[in-house]
Amino acid sequence: MPLDHLLDPPRDVRADDPRVGVIPANERLLTVPTLVTIARTVVAVVLSAMAAHQSSLTLLVAGLVVYWAGDVLDGFTARVLGQESRVGALLDVLSDRLCAASFYLGLAWLQPDLAPAVFVYLAQFMVIDCLLSIAFVAWPIRSPNYFYVVDRRLWLWNWSPPGKAANSALVAVLLLVTGSMWAGLVLALALTVLKTASLVRLLRLGLPVPGSP
């Protein structure tokens, strides 16, 4: 699927549209995109563990870069090869949590003064955002990237390219560049408010039971 479809998705697409719907033949664990996901997760986590063991901020940042680059690459590969799947999307969501936890816990280990901001961010990313990100399985769409067919505002806040970048990158960049716990904490709290508002909207929207009218 072209990238511009994700940047500016059409408003007339429905969940049963073949451009966003589930492709049964793709629903297997071992595909090129999922192998990329597994590989980038292993490398990112190993680098973060080595960083904590060797007290190396350089290795920790390297792990973060692998996490981010791999996260872009697995999604790009899935679209280019036509191998997008719900299995791959769920694996990606969970792998992101492991990569992020490895980095942020490593950062708190190396720079304990940043711990309050780190743990507030992890609370929203590991719990609230995770619940939001796996909710797509209640609809017949391939991944959160296509949640605009369910609720455009929730997609814009959470899974549009700017929404994804804000959630996955801003806190880490801010903490690394400024070293300010307070700046990171304010941003982490702001994200928590946004994610909580998203969760409330999702619950008001309702999660359909598979197979029900």
Give descriptors for this structure:
single chain, 213 residues, mainly alpha, Four Helix Bundle (Hemerythrin (Met), subunit A), 69% helix, globular
What do you see in this structure?
The chain has 213 residues and is an all-alpha fold. It has a single domain, classed as CDP-alcohol phosphotransferase transmembrane (TM) domain (Four Helix Bundle (Hemerythrin (Met), subunit A), Up-down Bundle), CATH 1.20.120. 69% of the residues lie in helices and 0% in strands. The protein is built from nine helices and no strands. The chain starts with a helix and ends in an 8-residue tail after the last helix.
In short:
69% of the residues lie in helices and 0% in strands. The protein is mainly alpha-helical and 213 residues long.
- Class derived from helix and strand content: mainly alpha
Proper CATH architecture = Up-down Bundle
Number of domains: 1
Number of helical segments?
A: 9
Order of helices and strands: HHHHHHHHH
Main sheet specs? none
Return residue spans where pLDDT drops below 50 for at least 5 consecutive residues: 1-5
What is the radius of gyration?
A: 17 Å
The coarse silhouette is globular
In angstroms, what separates the terminal alpha carbons? 29 Å
Strand content: under 5%
CATH topology: Four Helix Bundle (Hemerythrin (Met), subunit A)
CATH class: Mainly Alpha
At the fourth level of CATH, the homologous superfamily is CDP-alcohol phosphotransferase transmembrane (TM) domain
Approximately how much helix is present in the residues?
55-70%
Q: Quote the average pLDDT.
A: 91
